[in-house]
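Handout, section 3.2

Students often ask what a structure token actually looks like in practice. Rather than define it abstractly, here is a full record for Enhancer of rudimentary homolog. The first block is the sequence as you would receive it.
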Amino acid sequence: MANRHTIILMQTSQNRATRTFMDYDSISQAMDGICGLYERKLKELNPAIRNITYDIADLYNFIDGLADMSALVYDHQIQAYLPYDRQWIKQRTFQHLKKLAH
């Protein structure tokens, strides 16, 4: 799974102008990027709090609160990007955070 170029497609609201993408060299980096996006949002909403903690349910609520989020992951065997949905992203962020905790 290492070194699989990953593009995260997202839309933060119903407004089509909020569509954007983030690209990463690996799935792991993409999951870090999604967590970082959420952490920046928490800091923006709570500027006076120095150490903000959250659990996986909070992260899932953030992901579910976006108008859209999906991933395109490059598969070297078929030389094409495979699409993955929001549920897959939530599973992968959980696995990623679990690895970081151990």
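Discussion prompt for tutorial groups: The first strand starts at residue 6 and ends at 11. How would you have guessed this from the sequence alone?
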